């Protein structure tokens, strides 16, 4: 079965690790590598033992009443907000971004977005959120797949912005339990006070540190991912069951179907030995959508044959 449902980058950085010979990883050196990579100061970075851990930590730390998630979004935010007792509201990104929100709410926005990979110019939204004194969480997990602007520049202009990044997707290791929160130095200092010592795996820190040493990976990965994504888009544009595709800036493509439901469409592809995600678990997604993740050139050639045959 050729699998197009894997969220992780299909390309891998050059990492040479002897896992039988790993000692304590220098935490400050890893922070320095991240600071250099993302144009930050080490005092603006806190690391967490996984994506969910970062989300729970920040929402628990903020301890506010209202949470607004612009969806579809990673479901970990919804689960954490509900478990922590937030008054949760979901805003459908596909319909209206500028619906009113309550004063001093937590807002969660992924950029690029999950599923469709849309990159948003956030200037007007940020102006509105700031006017409502909102605390802003921007998920930039997928930003590494493109060359668009990060929200880092806003960290020095508004003191209630937090940027979350899960490293497992881009650095191609679904078992990598390392995520980060970027914010201003004061916010990170306050977050760090509540965090336990020695919370991170030396194996995972070593892996990420070695990934960051591969200076050519970003250029190679992004150029090939863009090329392959365009090829996949071209294939689906010619499919009689496709209504339209969302414009993506990541490794994920969201496709709106016509004259067929997602379950039946996926069954047709399964008969051709192709596996694609069923994304019905996400908010505001119905049986008319499928999403696919960028894969290798060889896999895409097999996908092309399958799509043209159905």
How would you characterize the overall build of this protein?
The structure is a single chain. It contains ten helices and twelve strands. With 310 residues, it is α/β, with parallel strands linked by helices. It has two domains: 2-6 and 217-309, Aspartate Aminotransferase, domain 1; 27-213, Type I PLP-dependent aspartate aminotransferase-like (Major domain) (Aspartate Aminotransferase, domain 2, 3-Layer(aba) Sandwich). A hairpin with a 6-residue loop joins strand 9 and strand 10. Helix 1 (27-38) runs parallel beside helix 7, helix 2 (51-62) packs across helix 3 and helix 8 (217-237) packs parallel to helix 10. The protein is globular, with a radius of gyration of 20 Å. The model has no long low-confidence stretch (mean pLDDT 95).
Secondary structure layout plus pairing:
Blueprint: E1 2-3, H1 27-38, E2 45-48, H2 51-62, E3 66-71, H3 75-83, E4 87-92, E5 106-110, H4 123-131, E6 135-139, E7 161-166, H5 167-170, E8 179-182, H6 185-193, H7 202-213, H8 217-237, E9 242-245, E10 252-257, H9 262-271, E11 274-275, E12 289-293, H10 297-309
Parallel strand pairs: 1-11, 3-4, 3-5, 5-6, 6-7
Antiparallel strand pairs: 2-8, 7-8, 9-10, 10-12
